[in-house]
Amino acid sequence: MARDTTDFRPIEGVDELVEHLAEGNKPRDKWRIGTEHEKFPFYVDGNAPVPYGGEHGIRAILEGMQEKLGWDPIMDAGRIIGLVEPTGRGAISLEPGGQFELSGAPLETIHQTCREGNAHLAQVREIAEPMGIRFLGLGGSPKWSLAETPKMPKSRYEIMTRYMPKVGTKGLDMMYRTCTIQVNLDFESEADMRRKMQVSLKLQPLSTALFANSPFTEGRPNGFQSWRGDIWRDTDNQRSGLLDFCFSPDFGFADYVEWALDVPMYFVIRDGHYHDMTHVTFRQFMAGAARNEISDGLPTMGDWANHLSTLFPDVRLKRFLEMRGADGGPWRRICALPAFWVGLLYDAAALDAAEALTSSWSYEEVLAMRNAVPEQGISAPFRNTTLREIARDVLVISRMGLKNRGRKNRDGYDETSFLSTLDEVVARGTTSAEELLSAYHTRWGGSIEPVFMEYAY
Question: What span is annotated as the signal peptide, if there is one (predicted)?
């Protein structure tokens, strides 16, 4: 999330929180595709991490991007920590360890998404390369320890950094040493949201497997294909993971609100200052728990929107649905991830087929799949088959959905071509992580340094 929300409307009751989510309902002709992708900046000289300050640091890149794009700066305690397009169509933000993120504009086609990503990477290279900086497309930081990883001066991250070790063993790794590609998709009603939430929760482990791309930590293999996937198993299980109540046949907005109300908060913003609220849940906040800690003590709709942004389930519900399972990766993956999910969820026939395929999958089965994927990738077992075979069926459905959409570029090609990188994973039977490990053990001679050349933007 590039910029935290300031909406000072007071909350009168829980019904308003439910309505906030329901306001995301959109007719089909208004559905859009919002793609987010993160990457690790590094100095070409020595493959070292890039700090915030200095003549050739993250701040300098942001300032250069601001001058080039004319976007508005996002400030935190007088420091630039991001940029936002003046009409709200896109933003650039920083993750805790300096991971550079584009939160893309809401677009109509994958063709537009791909052009957007390509333009962004060209723009940031134009600013960063004269500084000796490039960007790495992996799901996990392959070389630097936590101590070596820079920290960005962002107030919410200071609160999270203090809190994470209290609720899990891997939260700091999640914050500082992982990257993702995400896509944000719309729904037209509560029933449509339910179907999309349930299908995408069940298929999120498959997405993690297909995009597995984080096999190295601190210079050597870490035993995982998706280290990022493993990290999410013990980050903060009160606010992340696979949500069992979403599998209910009558799941709705109110159920998500009831869950979110009982998750500890991170912060509230008053007069530009971030107040640590990790000791109370949002329900307790609404009951007056902060009356003696902040000036008014009254919860606002801005507080609720910010709280929703600090929840990390595999699929996150806001006024849209966020697909959160994939590792970061090279440019082709930035196009493939939204294509995969748009094909499954934005065409009626494809959604019917995906729902039929997954309808009998239980929470326990999906959880077992989710736990197997970080180590085993697409070789993970499911019932009497493997995820590789499931992927074949799911990609057929996704391709059908994209074909049915019929969104063609100027050369007459539809969106199905963006699935080709995933077709290759299934045809090979090996993930990107396994290809990296093979290179490490053979042509790279036991060194991870070549990854900075081969997977750099």
Answer: none
CB 82, CB 91: distance < 8 Å: yes
For 322, list phi and psi in degrees, rounded to 5.
-110, 125
Task: Check residue 122 and give its pLDDT.
Answer: 95
Burial class of residue 271 in the structure, from the number of CB atoms within 10 Å of its CB (0-12 exposed, 13-18 middle, 19+ buried): exposed
Per the structure block, which two tokens stand in for 116? 């957007």
The pLDDT tens digits of the residues spanning 355-367 come to 999 999 999 999 9
Q: Rounded to whole angstroms, how far apart are CA atoms 158 and 273? A: 12
Q: Which residues contact 193 (CB under 8 A, 6 or more apart)?
A: 24, 25, 187, 252, 253, 317, 321
**Chain segment 246-269, per-residue pLDDT in tens:** 999 999 999 999 999 999 999 999
Instruction: Give the contacts of 197 (CB within 8 A, at least 6 positions apart).
Output: 246, 251, 315, 317, 321
Instruction: Note the pLDDT of residue 272.
Output: 87
CB 163 within 8 A of CB 232: no
**Residue 42 bridge partners (DSSP):** 49, 134
* pTM confidence score: 0.97
Question: What DSSP string describes 175-213?
Answer: HHHB-EEEEEE--SSHHHHHHHHHHHHHHHHHHHHHT--
Residue 227 near residue 405, CB atoms below 8 Å: no
Q: Which residues of 8-27 are buried (b: 16+ CB within 10 A; e: fewer)?
A: eeebeeeeebbebbeebbbe
Give the list of residues 6+ apart from residue 426 with CB closer than 8 angstroms, or none: 210, 378, 388, 391, 392, 395
